[in-house]
Design brief:
four-stranded mixed β-sheet; Peroxisomal Thiolase, Chain A, domain 1; binds oxa(dethia)-CoA; 9 helices; single chain; globular; alpha/beta
Amino acid sequence: MTIRAVVRGVGHYLPERVVPNSEFEALVETSDEWIKSRSGIERRHFAAPGQTTADLGTRAATAALADAGLAADDIDAIIVATSTADFTFPSCATMIQAGLGMTQGFAFDVQAVCAGFAFALTNANALIVSGQANRVLVIGAETFSRLMDWTDRGTCVLFGDGAGALVLEAQTGTGTTEDRGILATDLNSDGRFKDILHVDGGTSTGTTGHLRMEGKEVFRHAIEKLAETAHRALDKAGLNAGDVDWIVPHQANIRIIEGTAKKMQVAMDRVVVTVQDHGNTSAASIPLALSVGKARGQIKTGDLIVTEAIGGGLAWGAVVLRW
Ligand code: UT7
């Protein structure tokens, strides 16, 4: 008997305010044309003043619970992938737990920046497979608009706010790749590259700080590392790229998404793309894309999905799951 962590529900939430590229033309020396052609981004959502990361995550979690036909009391654990928790502590996860009215179980954050959802899924899978939890709510929630330096055109046009969530549930599988659920994961990090993508604030400075990125360098690492980690995860599952129904990548840049798909020899009509509408929402981008991909009718029960992401740390990873 093999226990699998199977997706029972999915949901997302995007703040109301939609910000088109043209709004940045008044702020910095940029153009809609540059942003679109260099990143694929056309618009992004920004949280309203006072709207917190936990608010976004709570709404996405509520949608995922409704999709699963479950109540908060049916959940054993909450894992939130975020780098924009509203406070140093308590965790965003316990704030979402309270927001859902959930008084049992446990909740904690995972911080692996844009790769956070792959790390959170891997942790949730471990809890379920080891029998420590039956149902885990896995949430990616971010308000990266709060980390922007609005004078830095190289970063401020790229990021957005949002949240997505999955309900994972222990189900009995056969132990084959035909099982639904998480089939393999691959996580990596290398702190030598901490300076190329970081926030220059925290307890060491007494300020929240701003996101700083050497875009070209991060781009180079992404192109090199994403296909590698996806292939390793597929290998661990005993599958290959030809078996993949959908790549659901981290949505940072359409050129990275296309480059990775090309390296994996997967056609772009098998890649879920939301970067044009959401920008880079860091750890929220994969659950957002899963939720939107399902709503569009792209992702269906039984489909084999590979997610892959890279971000600050550097940290990167991939998850293979059958929907
Ligand atoms: O999610 C975490 C991972 N993050 C990523 O994966 C992001 C990775 N990096 C990227 O997506 C790309 O590197 C960027 C979209 C950030 C930049 O694209 P690029 O093709 O690498 O451009 P670049 O940084 O080499 O900049 C090219 C030019 C520069 O001007 P010069 O030096 O050639 O005169 C920049 O100053 O474009 C300029 N530039 C801009 N021009 C108009 C940079 N930002 C802008 C802007 N508008 N917003």
